[in-house]
Amino acid sequence: MPVDFFEGQRQVNNWSVKINIFRKSTVFRRTVGACFVLAIYVAIGHAIEDYFKVTMPFKFGEATLLGGVLSLLLVIRTNSAYDRWWEGRKLWGALVNHCRNLTLKIKNMVDAPEEEKLQASEWVVSFPYCLKDHLRGGPTAETLEHLPQPLPDDVSHVPSHISSKLFCRLKTWRSEGRVDKFDYHLIDQHISALMDICGACERIRNTPPPLSHRALIPQLLIIYLVIAPLGVEPTWSSALLGLGIAYFLIGIEVVAEELEEPFGQDTDDLPLDTISRNIKRSVREIIRI
């Protein structure tokens, strides 16, 4: 049976399936929860208005203008968050290519025993798993068990440790004359690229958007959602319309918050586990050809 290297990464084209998947996502739960709290607030607000016989002098048309400006700001915020997500995906796509090319060149350019090549390929396999864990807070016991050699106790940056092992192996092959100078540099560039990708992912992980950029729009959104509903007639049609508008405004903000951190384990985060498994399949298949 052929291996499906695109498992879990294909786009879903069926609308009903898309809606069903989205219904289970973190974004949907957070958005519906916020809308539920907003509905309770509006109901209490209108009850107080009816009890004290007061109305807010705030017209829906004025709220529409504010909502239009807020929507534009939310779109800009979502685009900047998506740029972070997409940059992360490009980096992991490059990681796939470098791991495959590195294994291909070790396989065909190095005149070394098969055992040494197999061990080097296992270090390559371990790199995406350790990078994934590194971006999520630290290596797991399951990942460390699959390393070709036990991890020293004083190592805190596992991806750099793996790259060091690969550099050390390549240098040994060069000193033993098992790889010539030209091929040495061809292999070296892929090992160097592993740490370049790691550093770029750390930049995304450790450098969130500025606080003012992340905090101002939610404040405006809360002000809008607090003021606007109380200036509308308490009818079922206006209530449904208001909840629909609130659902999409809150949803856009929540989506932006999810996309800003692309290396987690939520529904909208990058499928790092799937990408790591595909790299393992490719590398092990290449080394055994």
Strand segment tally: 0
CA-atom Rg in angstroms: 26 Å
Structural class, please? mainly alpha
Q: What is the succession of H and E elements?
A: HHHHHHHHHH
Number of helices: 10
Low-confidence stretches: none
What does this entry look like structurally?
The chain has 289 residues and is mainly alpha-helical. It has helices spanning 15-23, 26-52, 60-109, 114-135, 141-145, 158-175, 181-206, 211-227, 236-260, 272-287. It contains 10 helices and no strands. Helix 4 runs antiparallel to helix 6 and helix 4 (114-135) runs antiparallel to helix 10 (272-287). The chain starts with 14 loop residues before the first helix and ends with a helix. The mean pLDDT is 85.
In terms of topology, how is this protein built?
Elements: H1 15-23, H2 26-52, H3 60-109, H4 114-135, H5 141-145, H6 158-175, H7 181-206, H8 211-227, H9 236-260, H10 272-287
Helix pairs in contact: 2-9, 3-4, 3-7, 3-8, 3-9, 3-10, 4-6, 4-10, 6-7, 8-9
Salient structural properties:
de novo design (two linked rop proteins); 289 residues
In short:
It is built from 10 helices and no strands. It is mainly alpha-helical and 289 residues long.
